[in-house]
């Protein structure tokens, strides 16, 4: 199955913080996730930092890569 890199998965947690899906252990993720959204890279790029709260460095890198890809 080919992976499509045009989509990003974002979720809201117990505090209504919106974050990119990262490397959370499955049980921890299941305990905190409230809603799951699938956005295009362009939609994620348009979100400001106060809307999207990456939980870890990988998520920060993913958001930066979206910006770099759009600029290419």
UniProtKB/TrEMBL annotation:
Q: Which GO terms describe its molecular function?
A: DNA binding
Q: Where in the cell is it found?
A: Nucleus
Q: List the record's Gene Ontology CC terms alphabetically.
A: nucleus
Chief location: nucleus
Domain (PB1) ranges: 1-43
Report the function annotation for this chain. Answer: Aux/IAA proteins are short-lived transcriptional factors that function as repressors of early auxin response genes at low auxin concentrations.
Quaternary structure, from the entry: Homodimers and heterodimers.
Q: Which PANTHER family match?
A: AUXIN RESPONSE FACTOR 2, AUXIN RESPONSE FACTOR 4-RELATED
Know the name of this protein?
A: Auxin-responsive protein
| Organism in which the protein naturally occurs | Zingiber officinale (Ginger)
